[in-house]
Amino acid sequence: MRVAFYAPLKSPNHPVPSGDRLMARLLMRALELSGHAVEIVSEFRSFAPTSEDAIARQVAGEAELQRLRNDWSARPAPDLWFCYHPYYKSPDLFGPTLSREFGIPYVTAEASYSAKRDATDWAPLQHLVVDSIRDAAVNITFTERDRSGLLKPLPQGRFAMLKPFIDTGPFEGAFTPARPQRLIAVAMMRSGDKMQSYAMLAEALRLLEDRTWTLAIVGDGPMRADVQRLFGVFGEDRIEWLGELGAGDIADAFRHSGVYVWPGCGEAYGLAYLEAQAAGLPVVAQRTAGVPEVVVDGVTGILTPDRDKTAFAAAVAGLLDNPARRTTMGISARRFVLDERSLSVAAKALDGILQTYVRQKA
After folding, report:
1. Domain check: are 53 and 43 in the same one?
2. Is a pLDDT exceeding 70 seen at residue 129?
3. Residue 335 phi/psi, 5° resolution?
4. Residue 219 half-sphere exposure, CB side, CA atoms within 13 Å?
5. Considering only CA atoms, which of 234, 228, 295, 284 is closest in space to residue 257?
6. pLDDT tens column, 66-82
7. Are residues 329 and 199 in the same domain?
8. Helix-, strand-, coil-residue percentages of the chain, each rounded to 5
9. Mean pLDDT of the residues in the chain
10. Which of 29, 240, 275, 307 could form a disulfide with 216 if both were Cys (CB 3.0 to 4.6 A apart)?
């Protein structure tokens, strides 16, 4: 099929790296791997930081909607509109309308719903998202948490599960962690959940100062100075600041580490967890939000209670002190991702979803 791909929060072409941009790109590659032709049909970003800004974004979007309508009237329309990650702050202002007008199926992936927004100024935007989900041929969810949330307003909606996945290409070949006492974390340095995770990680490591370890931090962003202050309490020999790295360099950084440590406060799921495991690293994270969808507790890593820095520190210490368990978990982690969460596995699953929910309706 010819797929019109749209990500209202952040285009796959956006210059700033993030998990959202990465997943959009991975979905496009998965579609292409299954033989579909994928086109990013719009770079328009509907994201609005406030409900007042949302009105301006809707007005600005009218010209883009007309541009798309004119374009499709002058040439054959695509076979499918695929919208990635619509939610109340970044609804899809084009896909539902164009899908109705041109008679093509509408599909969402990682749509989300927050009931508490229904009683706020965001309610009109959230209603747009709910309406689009209701009319979709299928809504693809990555976590049970998201699926359960969408079922509340739409118990009769059409849903299919696609587990989070990564491109395992950079992690193929022999991977033996070369520095078992080197901990590593990969995350953008920005306010909110990311800073909360950085703060918790620093607090947990303060409880382990009597042990031998170093921490490599991969990432950059507007809160870099704040993150550096958090870890400034440790000696310079403890912390390595690797900055922002490309996929190949991240894989190499994992190759020279022993344990992936990231609390994951508010994580939708976290693709870096899968990347670390693909490199043969066991994970220490919290049992919170979507993290359990990408880490098998007790098998590929250890998930600790939410906001419990003492339990988090104890889990890290347990892996530092027990080489055999660390190695066993690392082997299981690598097998889990390569066998179950690869791009090729996801491409087959995604195409199966489209075969079931879309082609029979096209």
Report:
1. yes
2. yes
3. -65, -40
4. 25
5. 284
6. 999 999 999 999 999 99
7. yes
8. 45, 15, 40
9. 94
10. 240
pLDDT of residue 176: 65
- Prediction pTM value: 0.92
Are residues 141 and 203 both part of a single domain?
Answer: no
- Give the total number of structural domains in the chain: 2
Q: Quote the CA–CA distance of 185 and 264 in Å, as a whole number.
A: 10
Question: pLDDT tens for residues 198-246?
Answer: 999 999 999 999 999 999 999 999 999 999 999 999 988 999 999 999 9
E strands of the chain, at which residues? 2-6, 37-40, 80-84, 106-109, 138-141, 159-161, 182-186, 214-218, 239-243, 259-261, 283-286, 301-304
Does the pLDDT of residue 361 top 50, yes or no? no
19-30 as b/e: b if 16+ CB within 10 A: bbbbbbebbbbb
- CA dihedral of 324, 325, 328, 334, whole degrees rounded to 10: -130
- The residue segments making up the domain with residue 128 are 2-165+342-359
The DSSP string of 27-58 is HHHHHHHTT-EEEE--------SSHHHHHHHH
Nearest Cα residue to 186 out of 175, 178, 197, 177: 197
Q: Are residues 102 and 193 in the same domain?
A: no
Whole-angstrom distance, CA of residue 304 vs CA of residue 312: 6
Q: What is the CATH number of the domain that holds 82?
A: 3.40.50.2000
18 and 155 in one domain?
Answer: yes
Same domain, 330 and 205: yes
The three-point CA angle 263-265-268 to 5° equals 110
Longest dimension (CA), the chain: 69
Residue 268's closest CA among 250, 284, 288, 285? Answer: 288
Q: Are residues 91 and 39 part of one domain? A: yes
